[in-house]
Amino acid sequence: MSMQSVASPAQVITPAKARSLRHIPGNEGWPIVGRTLNILADPKGEVERMSAKYGPVYRSRVLGETSITLLGPEANELVLFDQQKLFSSTHGWEIVLGRLFPRGLMLLDFDEHRLHRRALSVAFKSGPMKSYLAALDAGIAARVALWKANPGQMQFYPAMKQLTLDLAATSFLGAGIGPEVEEITRAFVDMVAAAVTPIRQPLPFTQMARGVKGRERIVAYFSEQIPIRRDREGEDLFSQLCRATHEDGALLSTRDIVDHMSFLMMAAHDTLTSSLTSFIGELAANPEWQQRLREEVRGLGIDANDPSSLDNLEKMPLTEMAFKEAMRKKPPVPSIPRRAVRDFTFRGFAIPAGTLVGVNPLYTHHMPEIWPDPEAFNPLRFTDEAQRYRHRFAWVPFGGGAHMCLGLHFAHMQAKTFTRHFLQNLEVSLEPGYKPAWQIWPIPKPRDGLRVTLKAIN
Ligand code: HEM
Predict the structure, then answer these.
(1) Is 51 in the pocket of ligand 1 (CB under 6 A)?
(2) CB of 80 within 8 A of CB of 399?
(3) Domain edges within the chain
(4) 3-456 homologous superfamily
(5) 268 lines ligand 1 (CB under 6 A)
(6) I want to staple 190 with a disulfide (CB 3.0 to 4.6 A). Which of 24, 210, 342, 443 is the partner?
(7) Which residues fall within 8 angstroms of residue 274, CB to CB, at 6 or more apart?
(8) Atom of ligand 1 lying closest to residue 80 CA
C-alpha cells in the first residue's frame, strides 16, 4: 500500500460534512447536545433502541459531532482489525483523550504507531512481567490481610480504586518513589477524571482545569526522573521505558517517555478498577462460582500467605474464564471510536472519509444470537470448545488488531493474583435482594460503590 493513502499523524482529517451522511438511517437528537444525554443515562438501552429502529449501521450525534455506529462482530473486525488501514485511532480518540494524553500509544497511527508499540513491548516481556508480579503480589497480599483483619461491610469500588492506584505506584513507578507519591498519584487521578468530564475546556474550578494542572505536575516529575532512572537498574515499568530503544538503538525521547507513561497509567487504572469490581460483584452474586474458584485456588497447594508465581497463575483456567465473563457483561471500554481516513462501504452503505465511526463491545457482548441468555453469568461460555465456533471479534474487551490492548497479560496477571489472595482469605456476599445499579459509560462503575460483606476464612 502506498504511503500517500495512509494518514500521517500530522495530517489533518477534515470531519465529514453532516449532509454527506444523511443517507444513513438514524436520529441525531437535540441541537448541540445531540444524543449525549441518552448515552450517559443508558448506553446499552440507547444502542439497542437505535439498532432496533435503524439497523446495525446508524447515524447519531454524541459529544458535538455526527457519528456512525457499526454494530456486530463483522463491524468490530472491519474497524479494529483494519486490514486496509482505513481508520485512524488518533483522530477517533483525540476528542476524549487528546488534551491530557496526547501521543499515548493509542493516539498514534499506522507506521509511527508500529514503531512505538515495538519499542514499548520490551516492558511487557516475561522478565519485566515477573518483577511486576512480585510488586503486585506483595501489595495485594498486604491489602487483603488488612481487609481480613477488619471484615464486615465495605464499599468495594473505592477500595479497589485505591488498591489499583497503590499497586501502580510500585509496579509502574518503583518502590523507592518516596514522599512525592501522594502528590503524584493525586495529579494522576485528576488527569484521569478529567479525561471523561463533560466540560472539555479547562475553565476555572472545573475538573478539566485540575486535569491540565495535574498533567503539568506529571510531566515535570517524569522529566526530572528520566536521567536518574537511566542510570539505575530499576525493574519497574517506568525504568524499563527509560532504557527502551527504537530499532536503530536510539533511546526514546523524554517527551515520548512522558507521554507513554501518562497514557499507560491511565489505560491501566480505571479499566482494572472497573473489571475487578464487576468480577467480584459477580462472584458475590453467584456463590457457587465463588466456591468453584476458591477450590481452584486451594488446588494450587500454596499457603494463604505464600507469594504467587506465574506458574501458579497459569493453573487458574476457571478464574480466567470467570474474569472474561465479567468483562463480557461489563466491558471496561464499552465503545471504541475511530475516524475514517478514506471512503469505505459497510453493509451496502457508502461512508465518506472524515466520518467519526464507533464500534460497540457492550452491544456485541449482549447479542442473544451469540450469547444466549446474555444477562446470566456463565463462565462456561469461555471453554475452548464453546469458543471454537464463535466469531473471533464477538468478544472484544481488549479491542483487536494493531491497537489491541498492550496490557492484556498485565490485566490478567493482576486479576488472577487478586483472586488468589482474596478467595483464599475472604468470602464475599451481597445483602439479600440487593441489586447494585451500574453506570456503564464512559467506564462502568457501580453507582453506590458496590456494598459487599467480607468474612474472614482460613
Ligand atoms: C481489564 C483491563 C483492561 C482493559 C479492558 C483494556 C482495554 C483496552 C482496549 C479496548 C484497548 C484498545 C482501544 C482501541 O482499540 O482503541 C486498549 C489499549 C491499550 N491498553 Fe488496555 N485495557 C486494560 C488494561 C490495561 C493495562 C493494565 C495496561 C498497561 C499496563 C493497558 C495498556 C494499554 C495500551 C498501551 C493500549 C494502547 C495499545 C495500542 O494502541 O497499541 N491496558 N486497552
Answers:
(1) no
(2) yes
(3) 3-456
(4) Cytochrome P450 (1.10.630.10)
(5) yes
(6) 210
(7) 330, 332, 443, 444, 445
(8) 15
